[in-house]
Amino acid sequence: MKLHFYGDIQGLEEGLSIICHELKIEQSEQGFPIHVKQIAGSLKVNCNPERGEIFFEEKIHFFRAVGLWIQEFKENKTFQVMEEPQFKTNGVMVDVSRNGVMTVEGIQNLLRKMALMGLNVVMVYTEDTFTVEEYPYFGYMRGRYSEQELRACDDYAHQFGIEMVPCIQTLAHLTEALKWNYAANIKDTADILLVGKEETYEFIENLLKAASKPFRSNRIHIGMDEAHQLGLGKYLEQNGYQKRFSIMNEHLHKVVALAEKLSLTPMIWSDMYFRLGSKNGNYYDLNAHIPEDVIDSMPKDVQMVYWDYYHTDEEFYRTFLQKHKEFGSEPIFAGGVWTWNGMAPNYGKTMATTNAALEACKKEGITEVFATMWGDNGAETHPFTGLAGLQLFAEHGYGREVDHKKLAKRFSFCTGGDWDDFIALNEFDETPGVSKDNLHESHPSKFLLWQDVLLGLYDENIRSLPLGQHYLNLASRMEEAKERNKNWSEMFSFYSQLARVLSVKAEFGIHLKAAYDRRDKQELTQLKDQLPLLRSMVDELRKLHRSLWFSSLKPFGWEVIDIRYGGILSRLDTVEYRLHSWLNGSISSIEELAEERLFFDAPWKMPEGALGRNTYHRIVTAGGFSV
After folding, report:
1. What is the largest CA-CA distance in the chain?
2. Predicted local distance difference test score (pLDDT) of residue 613
3. Fewer Cβ close by (within 10 Å): the C or N end of the chain?
4. % of the chain at pLDDT higher than 90
């Protein structure tokens, strides 16, 4: 297809060239003419037999409009489409601190998809994965970005009118950064900085300088969420017990002053103020009371970011947004594309929470929103599996209502993926026995993959559920998806193999235990003979996962996943060894199989805030994985 864009295109040329290359469009003066006009108001695309038209206000609106125009032109030669932007900023925060660090090329690929969707803000969440020259151990061997890499991303984003906002931590969530000896004097607890210490603020100032230097934006996200043990470690020893509201405000004032010194406008997560105002420490406590003197004493030029990926009730979001407005500045809303559930995204929960939240944001007049894509506990789910969630945010951003048919068509155009196939990834965790939309965040694909078949810690939880057949059917579904999604065949190849592995491994431990309890040597022999094939299937899964990882993530962090796969392979070898020993009479019992199986009832959160049942080390052993 040849097109000729003319009119108000100054400053759009480089981005337009990239997008045309992405869409295999040739720009030529002999091409079909499209007149471009920058005006205030709605985004419009028109076409008649003589020429096309694009009307836009913001730079990002132009790139969405280009996509809309081409999408419509492929089906109709005469059309009129108008959209009303609902938000000033709408975009994504990608986690690059929990193991998976996107390459520059990976981020640029994401930015191209965002441009077509019309999303105009992106944050890469960097706890310690950016370079700070003063601290060589900060982000050491963690895939940290250089200044040049981040600048390249910002330059690329700028061509589309996408703002890249640096996103760091300046209080908690710094376990990886503070584990080295250089940080001994600036930490309160293992993951929290020591408030009030001069050396701490020297450290933070260096972080702010390094984090902001590569970017055009004067905004910065300085974190400060989930500081659960604030003031209860070294701070307590040095200062005695202090009200945590006071500690929080003291610290915030100092960090904001440092940010202002660098001409930066900060935003923070809001949860700590609500937790401190709740009698039970709950962020989402509707009865939480934050004293007026605390609010009055807070810095006034700090935006509060209300993060909530959990509620499905629109009224709850509206109430909490109203509570945030009491801080005196307009809040930013952060929702979630559930890429942190385990091996696959939880689209049931993503859709239910996003629809409720963004409807509430529109009604409350919130102008800034973004979707988070976390990578908790290893980043096992590839970030690009979350693209359907980003499309949902985008379509909410350009219309009062979201039309499902348009949503699916737009997703196909912007990403080259099939909407239903991406949403079908939800079935890895919305299995028999799991409630509709998986609102309770079950994660069977994760625990069934990593759990030890000889110990079977989760076997009682899945007993009598037809999970083997479920995953066998899903394997066929994923194989068909691989054929339909040529741009995403690598991703669906991995998921097809994952389903095949789980179709065998999911119930293997149950069969093993039952056969041993019956002392059925014939069945145990048959199960032992299946183990080499299962090991081969797991190793093929590892290789497919590795290929998918290296397609857009840095090598640092893959070692964690590699070791997890190695654990399965090694343990399956031990299972074969143990069965062989018992079957040939070398041992009188297999103690692991003799042990009574109990329901896995660990909570989401273990003591001292350590993650519970969705965490690898809790899945693979009942012992201390690393003590």
Report:
1. 87
2. 65
3. C
4. 94
| CA–CA–CA angle 20, 25, 31 (5° rounding) | 115
Cα gap 127→96, rounded to integer Å: 8
Distances (CA, A) of 46 to 28, 29, 366, 389: 20, 19, 30, 28
Look at the block and give the residue holding tokens 């700028």. 158
Q: How many residues does the chain have?
A: 627
> 75 CB contacts (<8 Å, ≥6 apart)?
none
Amino acid letter at 238? Q
Please say whether the beta carbons of 509 and 459 come within 8 A.
Answer: yes
Distance CA 452, CA 459 (A): 10
CATH 3.40.630.30 fits 2-83, yes or no: no
**H or E element: which one contains 38?**
strand 32-38
Sequence ranges of the domains in the chain: 2-83, 89-416, 443-620
Element spanning 89, H or E = strand 89-95
Main-chain phi, psi angles of 64, to 5 degrees: -65, -40
Kindly compute the dihedral angle of the four CA atoms of residues 232, 234, 239, 241, in this order, to the nearest 10 degrees.
10
Eight-state DSSP code of residue 40: S
Q: Do domains 2-83 and 89-416 have the same CATH topology?
A: no
Radius of gyration of the chain (CA): 26
Residue given tokens 């790139």 in the structure block: 63
Give the β-pairing of 43-47 and 52-56.
Answer: antiparallel
Q: What is the mean pLDDT of residues 230-236?
A: 96
* Secondary structure (3-state) at 476: helix
* 601 torsion bin: left (phi>0), alpha (psi -120 to 50), beta (else): alpha
CA distance 395 to 50: 29
Positive or negative torsion for Cα 313, 314, 319, 325: positive
**Could you tell me which CATH class the domain 443-620 is placed in?**
mainly alpha
Contact between 133 and 121 under an 8 Å Cβ cutoff? The reply is no
CA distance linking residue 157 with residue 151, whole number of Å: 10
pLDDT, tens only, 70-91: 999 999 999 999 999 999 999 9
Mean predicted confidence (pLDDT) in 506-512 = 98
Contact predicate 97/128, CB 8 Å: yes
